[in-house]
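P.,

For your records, the input lines for the assembly:
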Amino acid sequence: MSGETIDLAVVGAGPAGMAAAATAADLGLDVRLLDEQPWPGGQIHRGVDRLAGPKTTDDPDRAAGRALLHALRQSKADYRPRTCVWHVGPGDDGVFELGLRCDGAVALLRARHVLLATGSVERAMPIPGWTLPGVMTAGAAQSMLKASGLCPEGPIVMAGSGPLLYLCADQLAAVGADIRALLDTTPRGRYFRALRDLPAALRAPAVLRRGLGLLRAPARRGIPVHRHVEAVEAVGDLGVTGVRWRRGGRWDQTDCDHLLLHQGVQPHINLPRLAGCAMEWDDVQHCWKPETDDWGRSTVPGCWVAGDGAGIAGGEAASDFGRLAALGVAADLGALTREEAGRRATSHNRALAPLLAVRPFLDNLYRPDRAFMLPADGTLACRCEEMTAGDIRKAVADGCHAIEAVKQYTRCGMGACQGRMCGSTVPEVIADARGVPVSAVGTYSQRTPVKPLPLTELAKLDTVLNPPSTETAA
Amino acid sequence: MSQESLDIRFRRAVRRATGEVTVEVDGRPIAVGEEDTAAAAILLAGALPNRLSAVSGSPRAPYCMMGACFECLAEIDGVPLQQACLVQVADGMRIRTAKGSPT
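Structure tokens returned:
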């Protein structure tokens, strides 16, 4: 691809990316929206462009998704599905270079600004047997339902913590899923401690009402809920055949064909890390996120981050964050004045206020429990390279204190997923072994390509990429 | 608790308004929605494990369904190691999994 330079490349066609691309294009910018999936919507609005969807009592997201999609289609934004972004970094002249791959062909795109709207990934829940066929994330099962109307066949057990677990249980039960048990790992005392954040959360009564409805859903659907579960294990040989769990010190078990795990979500930070954005530790959400200002501006000039990828605030907030970033980019490029951008931002910030006010309540309530972040020695931490928590502890004992040293010693984070699965567990185990806070351990650095691509395809690229910018130690 | 073979699958719970296409999973034809992914076809066909892990050869199956985990890898139309959850089906598509090609 030669010499083509656009105003703005948006990565990720979820709520933040769709809203940002449409807003920026409506302001006259030359925008390209790049997304790896075959269809728009991201995870929350997956399948929004088709399928009536599961008949549930609780799907206010769908209307919002349809509106975002409509605005995108009305705009002049150039939406490119099936397009993986495997590189992003500043070129020689300060213009960003993005490495793309679509339908088996690679290309380079040059963009004056880049907005990373890569959303969130589900936090790993590394328990014994979590790699067995039949075990998947709750979000994965929900994706299949939303996009294709598929449901796991046979008995199901769901385990973990957080609103998505209950939403998914409700949606699956609505289409006749046989959910034998919901194992809630939210530790005892969390509700009591979250009470201090409740007054602020009352500014978002709709969110709280919806959450309360979800918590009551299992009773309405006849799903047994086991609260304060302390340990969960998937049982099976070739695939999952049952689940064991400990509660109040006592083990119990049930047979099942599917185990759906969920332990909250965290920002998907691979691209911001690669772009060289400075990261900050969010102690309440217990995750790393790129440092951004009120507009979504990262520490790398011209690189913006919006939506859950900049810190978890949910899909509804993501669209407003996307619009704010689009206004910021447009102001920087002179497509509208700072005053006009500020004026337009007011309504978005007003919409965001209650959605952000409810976060401390939710985040403190559903902060992942240490028991599910620190697997036992024999449990796999890294699914790709098949390294156990014990292997990581041994690496630390052998003198690998820095996360990069552990990575090189064990290959954790160097497999096909590039740390997307083990990126939360490995730092946690290192921190625990060293007796330091996890924030002191940092997070995996990222290198091009952030997604594997065949050398035969890369070799066809007739351009030399600039090396990624020097990374700041997290 | 040893298993002879695996029968873990998904079923169609919500009917689609869109058309159907036929794909082959490990040589067996299966009707799927034209807007399903290859991973959906694998789950409908119960073709698990779809892959064996590179290090120990342990059985694996689609895990995240959003392009992050690389567990749904399968051979699609002769091209190995495709992320099946990111590939839309097409009529006549041939999907091969570890279940259908024992090593």
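Two observations worth noting. The longest helix of chain A spans residues 338-357. The CA atoms of residues 397 and 433 of chain A lie 8 Å apart.

Regards
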